[in-house]
Amino acid sequence: MRPLIATRALDICVLLEDEPIQGFTRQPLFHQPLSMVGLLLAEDVAHTISLERLAQVPLVLPTRPNAVRSVLDRAFQEAGLSPNCIAEVDTFASGLSLVNAGIGNVIVPNIFFGAPGHGDLRLIAIDPPLHVTACLVYSGTSPPAFAARAVGDLLITHVELALRNRSGRGC
To answer: pLDDT (tens digit, 9 = 90+) per residue, 36-60?
Structure first.
């Protein structure tokens, strides 16, 4: 999406950012911690995983460039660790398929792991926390056109409502 918004092939999109990208007008929507998603094992009762332990488990990581991958790469590098990357995928669904097959674990923003159908999977918080920010991004640095602003306003309203409903369910 970044190249499309940079070349103005898109006027507006929602991006996950680990650091703000220069040259765009943005509106932060929500800040999300990252967690590991893995198979629920009877002997595995931990609710958090350290970066050191995370480097030891088999990970299915997103291909670069990707905000989640950037956060992970930076955190591992700063800690002097290397992830045990067993596969790279382009989509969250592909990563979950590999997790369901027992091949590895994925790292996701918490909000992405709320869909039904993941009964044998569990979300494990990373400690210390790692985060990404979802932003509404407009092409260019000048104020967006009326139509792009109107779509942006609708997206903001929808995200606020979805987050309010999600938090009301205890998620």
So the answer is: 998 765 455 678 899 999 999 999 9
Cα dist from 24 to 19, 123, 157, 170, whole Å: 12, 33, 21, 34
How many CB atoms within 10 Å of residue 156? 13
The amino acid at residue 130 is L
Digit-coded pLDDT (tens) for 76-101: 999 999 999 999 999 988 998 899 89
Phi, psi of 109 (to 5 degrees): -65, 140
Residues 6+ apart with CB under 8 A from 109: 16, 32, 33, 34, 35, 68, 132, 134
* pTM score over 0.70: yes
Q: State the amino acid at position 59 in one-letter form.
A: L
Q: List pLDDT tens digits, range 118-169.
A: 567 888 999 999 999 999 998 877 778 888 889 999 999 998 898 888 765 5
